[in-house]
Design brief:
Shape: globular
Number of helices: 25
Oligomer: single chain
Length: 414
């Protein structure tokens, strides 16, 4: 694609990156076939190719209007198009650049502005979000239906291992997951403990930065990354083997730290090290699979209790490019995975998307639940807290993180 970027961005790092990405696009349109919003609306402007043209025009100095904002806002950042693209177009990064420019050029309405500000301020701050969410859980029976659906029922996390081990990993606690589903990291710690691996959560670490990045605030996202690196660095120097994440959405952000801070002389090297050490929990367990399966007895879940539908989050399969690892672990542990049609499509959660675009998010959720339920499973498993909460709001089937199912399987094995 030929480009003629405007002076305001041409010689900037973002401009050079955008130009490189744009020049890879060959207009083939393969991306539209796997784009969730294009599938819903059939509008070229609601597909990756159309959005690339809109961003290109914006970076070339064309007038930026609310129409551009409307169509870029409707993108889920699911990155399914990247998995399909034969030319390797890094669409998600181009979208981040375009959205940052858009935030400077087009003023939002007061309600949208307030909503986005509240999300950027409240969700990443655990000291604020956790008590508010716990209060919502307490009064859940009294909440209006629309709000009740957003609040997961409280599940006790269970014990946390206290014994020390020679081997250790650092776990990202994140911002919303500790309040919404504290059992996920607790289950992870128990599974790792059985393998002789200790799990540490650094107190000063927090939000990975993805939320603020995708809401157009790159500076705040970089601050989040720096804070986490500072919190983890002493543990890394102390010999931690990996930085482990149990929310694949956070994982895609951790793997982007090297890029995000590449121009920061104080953090570039450390950020690159963090990116290299960052692993999804499925990657850590896959490396220990023989020892893990040795812990599981011959007794296996029987009948319908073993039927599980696995929803692979977009961040796992398209962002991290991890496919099949979780499924292999669950199958080896004795679960039967039911078939799921169109498993590459987004569930509609997409970080804050289901809040900012509730109508589209709900349509995609309902389509996904229909696909997941078709095989008559007893439960739905996934690998990201956002997907878990969003899917649970639309079904009576229990939606669990897959590591919780594996933890229960190990307890069953004794």
């Amino acid at each position: 694609m030929e480009t003629h970027l405007a002076d305001f961005i041409r010689d900037t790092p973002a401009g050079r990156e955008a130009e490189s990405i744009l020049r890879k696009c060959v207009h083939c349109g393969f991306c539209t076939a796997t784009c969730p919003t294009y599938q819903l609306f059939g509008d070229e402007l609601d597909g990756p190719r159309g959005r690339i043209y809109q961003i290109k025009q914006m970076l070339e100095g064309a007038a930026v209007t609310e129409k551009t904002q409307f169509h870029l806002d409707r993108c889920l950042s699911c990155r399914s198009c990247e998995s399909t693209c034969p030319s390797g177009v890094h669409y998600s990064r181009l979208l981040d650049i375009g959205r940052a420019v858009l935030e400077e050029r087009v003023q939002r309405g007061p309600v949208d502005t307030l909503t986005r500000a509240a999300l950027k301020y409240a969700l990443p701050r655990r000291w604020l979000f956790a008590p508010a969410y716990r209060l919502g859980q307490y009064f859940r029976p009294l909440l209006p239906a629309a709000l009740k659906d957003k609040v997961l029922r409280y599940r006790a996390p269970g014990r946390r291992p206290t014994a020390g081990h020679a081997r250790s990993v650092i776990a990202l606690a994140g911002c919303v997951q500790p309040a919404m589903a504290p059992g996920i990291n607790a289950a992870t710690a128990r599974v790792l403990d059985r393998l002789g691996i200790g799990m540490i959560e650094a107190e000063r670490a927090g939000c990975c930065g993805a939320l603020r990045l995708h809401l157009g605030d790159e500076d705040a996202a970089r601050d989040d990354a720096r804070r986490n690196i500072d919190a983890w660095w002493p543990l890394i120097e102390g010999g931690a083997e990996a930085i482990l994440f149990t929310a694949s959405g956070c994982g895609t952000q951790l793997l982007d730290y090297a890029h995000l801070l590449q121009d920061d002389p104080a953090y570039a090297v450390k950020a690159a090290r963090v990116t290299l050490l960052s692993k999804d929990v499925s990657e850590v367990l896959a490396a220990e699979q023989d020892r893990l399966l040795a812990l599981i007895s011959q007794r296996r879940p029987e009948g319908k209790a073993a039927q599980v539908a696995f929803h692979s989050p977009c961040s796992l399969q398209h962002g991290l490019k991890i496919r099949g690892s979780v499924e292999a672990l669950l199958t080896a542990a004795g679960f039967t995975l039911t078939a799921v049609a169109d498993s590459h499509l987004c569930c509609g959660s997409a970080g804050a998307y289901s809040v900012l675009q509730p109508a589209i998010g709900t349509r995609l959720r309902d389509n996904k639940i229909s696909a997941l339920s078709a095989g008559d499973p007893s439960a739905i498993a996934t690998a990201n807290i956002g997907c878990l909460a969003h899917l649970q709001s639309g079904t009576r089937l229990p939606v669990r993180h897959w590591i919780e199912l594996l933890d229960e399987r190990l307890n069953l094995a004794g």
